[in-house]
Amino acid sequence: MRAFTYSRADTVEDAVRALAGNPDARFVAGGTNLLDLMKADAMRPAHLVDISRLPLDRIEETEDGGLRLGALARNADTAWDERVRSRYPMLSKAILAGASAQLRNMATNGGNLLQRTRCYYFYDSGTPCNKREPGSGCGALTGVNRIHAILGASEHCIAVHPSDLCVALAALEATVRVTGPRGERTIPFAEFHRLPGDTPHIDTTLGADEIVTAIDLPARGFAEHSTYLKVRDRASYAFALVSVAAALEIEGGTIRAARLALGGVAHKPWRDTEAEAMLVGKPAEAASFAAAAQAVLRGAKGHAHNAFKIPLAERAIVRALSEAAGVQTP
Ligand code: SF4
What we know:
By secondary structure, the chain is α+β, with helices and mostly antiparallel strands. It has helices spanning about 10-20, 35-40, 75-80, 80-85, 90-95, 100-105, 110-115, 120-125, 140, 165-170, 190, 275-280, 285-295, 310-325, and strands at about 5-10, 25-30, 45-50, 60, 65-70, 175-180, 185-190, 210-215, 225-230, 240-250, 255-265, 270. Among the domains are: about 60-115 and about 160-215, Uridine Diphospho-n-acetylenolpyruvylglucosamine Reductase, domain 3 (2-Layer Sandwich); about 225-325, Enolase-like, domain 1 (2-Layer Sandwich).
């Protein structure tokens, strides 16, 4: 691990000031990903600004009937919050599917959004990786790529975003609140994470001098018909091979609204609004879900070791939508 300097911010303004004009500085809160990356020499910040004591750890009601999740609220506190559990059960389930109890107790909501890919080559500084070192190449393209992307990848990077929480936030149409030297702004969740294109080292649209302060959930939480399904190599403490956040509004057996987002398949939580639109007006049954699943995977492309994810994702979508609808999985 390389030497770095350290300071602590007491206010959001202090934190923003500490980062201004210092491209080698990074915020640290729970530290559950950044410190691992520093130990692996995959990230080399020269200065850490400790934001763990900022007053951003509340979960509060919003005027429009939604909830505001503080960026520094812990993942565990968010998942077990009674309002989250009753109004956004898909989100609670997604958080509890991630990491371990110990990590969820440390990890913050803002940090979860900003965690980096778990691509093996990103962590291995002895191999080429365009995300870690732009222009060096991609070790995963010709290497072991079992956990990698099947949607939205580029010739420069086929990494996937590792979060569970973010998949549910994408399906819920959350909004990210950020603050920087130019003041506050909000970013729709669908625009927060990026596809790799030819700049895979840039994961999000957050400015280098901005801080995430909160995540706003809209009033509509799909509490009656929603679920989060995670398919992984072992039952806990494993990243998703494929995950699905599925939410429906159903009236008299007919789908009135649908949300569908996938994890473990792309560089960002993969939401497909066309497949969602296909479901509206259709009966809540397996045939409708299968057609939507095929639509989601129509542009999917496998690599040497991960083509199995395509049929796996198709089946996972059908199963998640069936669970959400309360109908038997075919
Ligand atoms: Fe790096 Fe992305 Fe290639 Fe992994 S897939 S080695 S993160 S460029």
